[in-house]
Design goal:
The relative contact order is 0.12. With 160 residues, this protein is mostly beta strands. It has a single domain, classed as UDP N-Acetylglucosamine Acyltransferase, domain 1.
Length: 160
Amino acid sequence: MTRLRIEGTGLAHDVTLGEDVEIWKPVNLWGCTIGAGTRIAAFVEIQRDAVIGERCNIGTGAFIAAETTIGDGCFIGQGVRICNCREPRATAWPGGPLKEGHQWKCEPVIIEAGVSIGANATVLPGVHIGIEAMVGAGAVVTRDVAHCATVVGNPARQVS
């Protein structure tokens, strides 16, 4: 039997949810896929085409950009920011109209199974974080992280 627990609003009609997902209010989710047994805290935004694995814990205030992939069993701490655009400009030129979706160049982020990302860390576009890696709180991840590595600081550097 599917047990879905949703507290609050902000869940778009095009979200795909696995069994036993918990979502706490308020959230902003659209066009994404959430795996079975995952828990999403309040004030989280998950954008289109993001895929969250099974048994993940997404902390309060996390932002997960479009086209991000997060593997099974990951911990995404409070206030984590996962970015997907290296040229974040509101308009194509000064004074021009706001950019439309097709004008943004996304660079997906891949986070493999068992990864833990500490509170307030930022992951920049195009980064790949390997299996069971650990990202310290407040780190700014500017490049790929090896499997089982621990990175800390700004920019994030491997410490183990």
